[in-house]
Hints:
- It is a single chain.
- Helices cover 14% and strands 29% of the residues.
- The strands form six sheets. The protein has a six-stranded mixed β-sheet, with no helix packed on it.
- It has helices at 10-24, 60-76, 107-115, 167-171, 216-223, 255-258, 311-314; strands at residues 32-33, 54-55, 152-157, 163-166, 176-183, 206-215, 231-242, 245-254, 264-269, 272-273, 283-285, 298-304, 318-319, 328-329, 336-339, 344-345, 352-354, 357-366, 372-378, 386-387, 389-390, 400-409, 412-422, 447-451.
- It contains seven helices and 24 strands.
- It is globular, with a radius of gyration of 24 Å.
- α1 (10-24) packs antiparallel against α2 (60-76).
- It has three domains: 1-89, no CATH class; 99-327, Oxidoreductase, molybdopterin-binding domain (Sulfite Oxidase, Chain A, domain 2); 336-451, Immunoglobulin-like (Sandwich), CATH 2.60.40.
- By secondary structure, the protein is an alpha+beta fold.
Amino acid sequence: MLLSRQAWPNEAIMAAFSWIDLVISDRKGERYMQSVEAPQHQPGSSPIPSGTPRKSRLTRRAFVAATSALTGVLAAAGLPAARARAGHAPSRPTSKRPPPSDDLVSYEEAYLAFRCHGFHLEGLSYPITPLGMHYLLMHFDIPRLEQVSPYQVAILGHVRKPMVLTLDQLKTRPTVTQPMLLECAGNGRALLHPRPVYVPWFNEAIGVYEYTGIPLRPLLEEAGVLDGAVDVVFTGWDQGVDLGVHHAFERAMPIEEALRDGNLLAWNANGQSLLPQHGWPLRFVANGWYGMQSVKWLKAITVLNEKFTGVENQKVYRITDSADEPGTPVTRQSVRALVQPPGIPDLFTRHRFLSPGTHVLNGMAWSGWGAIARVELSVDGGGIWADAELLKPVSPYAWTPFRFTWQDVGLGDYELVPRATDSAGNIQPLEPFWNYQGMAQNGVQRVPVTVV
């Protein structure tokens, strides 16, 4: 039984928590977190935010020391560090991600999977994903922003005219409404072996909403991007600790990518305000990039004249073969196709059952590197291929529908495999592309079907 709070050695526990707070607020580190405060400016001048980047690094050594101190205090007080649940003792925070595993999905991964739910593959029949069917990934907590009034976004850094614009001011500008596809960079991670440990996505980390907002490029042009600009950093209101570093979630992309057509600051999805978990009241939606770049709860856009060195660019979302090598950054979506599983499912395994005859198979294909040029489909696991019919996409920033007529299907077991090719010549691989973090994996989908 846990001791009552009154029975704890309060002074020791408070000392441990004070030590953790001290380490977290240490400003001697290398990492900074954007802090945009209310602008202070003279009448008639450009509104320049007074807030300056502040360092907030919880170093790996300090993080381990802090958590060890707390664990030691709890042990000295006769308290368990973590109570076992369903026969599993939850892990303590560490400054490293777990290594790839041969084991079944862990307790922590199941917990993350409930917070970060996936798309339902029967939704491939909708060109625009219904609101509750879109995939969802949240790195930290959903911030409550109702009291932030007026809601505003700062555009600052290596620009001629820094600006702070309220959401109402953004809405007075020429708006666009465009369907856009988002895909998590970890889509397909659970299909790899050994399995990289994080949210255990199979093929369902996708979705297309019809967003309403304003293009990013005119805003950057108005702010006046200066010569020598390198990266554009998008900072959200959400914050937490990852790899031992306390930071606001923020991601950077090269300036030339930020200036591409299609990038949007959006406040509506499918004709209504963004849902809280999808970034209300304002988010960035990046054309053709994996979802980590589409920063939610947008707070600031900062132009840098050097490469951004934040955790989410330099340590996470990298294609590497091991934990220690730097690897290469994840950027645009790899070419990919998914077919809607036909027939009816077995409840537990989701194995499909189908009657004999002729069946029309439908699906979607996409790529961040170019338009979809071809989709092939095999019904024997990849032995023989036939072309599917490509249909017109609802937007150049969405997915491309395809249709395949499977004729005279007889009794037996089959494996449906779609494979896409984009206009840049990229073709889906037949086998999963393994990497340490399980990023940008686009091995073909395989759907076992029994015709009875």
